[in-house]
Amino acid sequence: MNKSWHCLLLIAIALLSGCAHFKFQGYRTVKGSPEEVGPPVDRVIGYGVLELKKPYPSESSPILQVYLEKKIVQKIRYDRDTYQEEVYKKQLSSLEAFYKKYWVWCFFVNLALFIGEPKWEVALPTAAVIALSGSVVEGKPKPEFQYKRVQGSDGVETHFREYERDVPAVGEPLVIDELTTVHTDTNGCARISFPRSRFDTGIKINHAASGGLYIVRRVQRERIVEASWVKTVKMLGLVGGKAATIIQIVKHARAGLGPAAYIITIVVDVAGDIIFPYAVRKLGTITEQYYDWVIFKIEKRSK
Questions:
Q1: pLDDT tens-digit profile of 161-220?
Q2: How far is CA 29 from CA 32, 112, 249, in A?
Q3: Peptide bond into 55 cis (omega under 30)
Q4: Residue ranges per domain, the chain?
Q5: What is the Cα 19 distance to its own chain's centre?
Q6: CB 248 within 8 A of CB 269
Q7: Helix (H) or strand (E) holding 59
Q8: Cα 200 from chain centroid?
Q9: Which candidate among 112, 141, 172, 192 keeps its CA 20 to 30 Å from the CA of 160?
């Protein structure tokens, strides 16, 4: 290798390596992932309305079941480890900074010299080295940092989060008729023995914590239901029309439809020309009485 190539190699090494160093920039805090610490702390902020649960009391099982819910604020603690790091940023050497800025200019100057006095064995390789080193310098990632952990900077960062939740009210005392007390279980439910003699007059339930006073009793209601024979008639596919259709249905009914035949015969004998759907609607529905259970909340008036 001749002297010119040695010279070019030294130029390339000097330009590409340089004397870059890292300069202190300051400190930064590094934080780990937050971890839940200890059990949550619950704070009650209100109660729901007492609710009835099925099955309702009956003559065979006079047990009343009620459910109570409460609203809480759940406070959870989170900790995460922290430490400090020294931050260093890479600084360019004076040669690298100069070359980073002027390498294109150097390339064209060298090329111009070659054109003026063509010595390809020196000028062309020099131009190639300048171009290659310049592209490498431009392609370096920037900026570059280094970090060093500070000994003795370990710490813990603590913060809290609060969540509102509706949960079963566990262990709440319910006073029955100002005489006995029952407590809600882990599901927020309580079972109360309900005297049969009080089904219609009701019992009182008092929840002191929420100030709720309730009366529970059964009430008699009525509902309209469809007689069982109506379904049989509709299955014949002959619902509609007037007396002629009704007579046809009666013939089918008398052939073996049982009790429905008697009811349909009455429709024919009494109603005559009444449109059959109307007759079915009038004679095929009955009023049924049943018992329902209700809970009343008594509002306490302030004096």
A1: 999 999 999 999 999 999 999 999 999 999 999 999 999 999 999 999 998 999 999 999
A2: 10, 53, 91
A3: yes
A4: 228-283
A5: 57
A6: no
A7: none
A8: 43
A9: 172
